[in-house]
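Project outcomes to date are best conveyed with an example. Our students and postdoctoral researchers have been running inverse folding experiments weekly, and each run begins with a structure described purely in tokens. The record below, which covers 429 residues, was selected by the lab manager from last quarter's runs and is presented without edits.
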């Protein structure tokens, strides 16, 4: 639902840009005809460059609909069009810190884990020895420091031309996920599965909201995903098919996991369940592949997420016509990006709690609240400009205002429920 809201807002933003461009051209034409003679206008017409966006007209065959999504309009730009532009970068910045927390924690957690064949039957504490007298907690911090020193400096630069690297990373993800599903199915089929899940367990519901936000949140990336599509007539069908495929894949991965492994020994980092038990996977190459692939994918994604977050902070504090001093631009903003995740990662490495908190709060804003507000305000903003008779061909199927308020009410109830559960959990402990 909220994905269709963002697509509709993108179309409205394109219509708004075209209207403003036509308005500027009309003002320019009127000024030219009033200040110059006919001969001057002919000379100026031959010598000055064209101001009309010829490329957009050619791409649409000369009959561009005002709601065609031809220009990429990011969520920050849509926010500046329809309401206070600082709200979206702020929510996106807080949300983006969540993946950085987890990305910083995952490689050190993998490095300090026990990958022997008997490790699956043991739950280790942070105080257990890892290197002689060095505890797992101290070893984790050493690896965290090394990981930060290796990848942290990328935050001070720009990440560009990562197309083929991202394709390779995506391919490795699909291979690893498919492998884990097949291995779990084989173990279940042999009757050696250890999972005996209860019919229902309400204790995990609060974190479920945060995890779901992480799993299905792509709203902030839709401008980059939808705009390059040449034929957008069936973009809604394409998005629906994509969501259905993702849902089916997640369900298959999750259900094979809970029936294959004992829930009390199930690791938060799912790949560890295949690397510390040779009864599940006894081929050394595949065990090392599943053990190392999270490190590789996280190492490639960390600089990109960090640079995106740094740019969000710049957008948040940017003022029209102003520029940042070199120290602020190149030092302060990267430090604002890096320091909070590093501090949190050093203090705790509870992945489940961090995913639940960051996903439930900041992620809820990006997935639910921001799209609902964008589509509602874009409709009100464009009605006086294009008129009530104009039809947005990318209008959401959930066009009634009731759905906007339903999404906001749903987001509010989720936040209240999660907050109450966190308070009650802390009180019990």
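After processing, the design step wrote out the following sequence:
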């Amino acid at each position: 639902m909220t994905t269709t809201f963002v697509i509709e807002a993108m179309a409205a933003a394109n219509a708004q840009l075209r209207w403003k461009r036509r308005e500027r051209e009309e003002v320019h034409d009127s000024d030219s005809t009033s200040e110059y003679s006919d001969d001057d206008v002919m000379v100026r017409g031959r010598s000055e460059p064209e101001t009309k966006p010829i490329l957009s007209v050619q791409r649409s065959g000369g009959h561009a609909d005002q709601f065609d999504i031809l220009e990429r309009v990011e969520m920050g730009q849509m926010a500046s069009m329809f309401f206070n532009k600082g709200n979206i970068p702020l929510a996106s910045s807080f949300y983006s810190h969540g993946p950085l927390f987890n990305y910083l924690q995952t490689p050190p957690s993998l490095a300090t884990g026990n990958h022997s064949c008997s490790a699956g039957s043991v739950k280790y504490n942070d105080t257990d020895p890892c290197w002689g007298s060095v505890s797992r907690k101290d070893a984790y911090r050493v690896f965290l420091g090394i990981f930060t020193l290796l990848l942290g400096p990328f935050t001070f630069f720009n990440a560009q031309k990562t197309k083929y690297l991202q394709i390779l990373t995506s391919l490795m993800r699909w291979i690893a996920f498919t492998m884990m599903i097949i291995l779990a199915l084989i173990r279940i089929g042999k009757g050696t599965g250890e999972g005996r899940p209860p019919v229902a367990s309400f204790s995990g519901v609060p974190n479920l909201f945060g995890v779901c936000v992480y799993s299905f949140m792509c709203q902030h990336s839709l401008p980059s995903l939808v705009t390059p599509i040449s034929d957008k007539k069936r973009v809604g069908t394409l998005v629906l098919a994509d969501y259905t495929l993702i849902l089916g894949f997640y369900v298959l991965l999750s259900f094979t996991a809970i029936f294959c492994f004992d829930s009390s020994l199930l690791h938060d980092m799912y790949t560890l369940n295949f690397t510390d038990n040779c009864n599940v996977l006894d081929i050394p190459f595949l065990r090392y592949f599943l053990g190392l692939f999270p490190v590789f994918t996280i190492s490639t994604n960390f600089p990109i997420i960090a640079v995106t977050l740094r740019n969000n902070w710049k957008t948040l504090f940017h003022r029209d016509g102003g520029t940042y001093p070199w120290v602020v631009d190149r030092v302060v903003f990267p430090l604002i990006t890096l320091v909070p995740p590093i501090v949190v990662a050093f203090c705790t490495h509870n992945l489940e709690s961090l995913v639940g908190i960051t996903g439930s709060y900041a992620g809820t804003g990006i997935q639910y609240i921001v799209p609902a507000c964008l589509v509602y305000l874009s409709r009100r903003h464009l009605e006086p400009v294009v008129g009530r008779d104009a039809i947005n061909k990318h209008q959401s199927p959930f066009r009634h205002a009731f759905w906007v308020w339903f999404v906001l009410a749903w987001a509010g109830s989720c936040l209240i429920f999660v907050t109450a559960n966190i308070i009650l959990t802390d009180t019990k402990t």
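The chain has a mean pLDDT of 75. The longest helix spans residues 351-386. The training component of this project remains on track.
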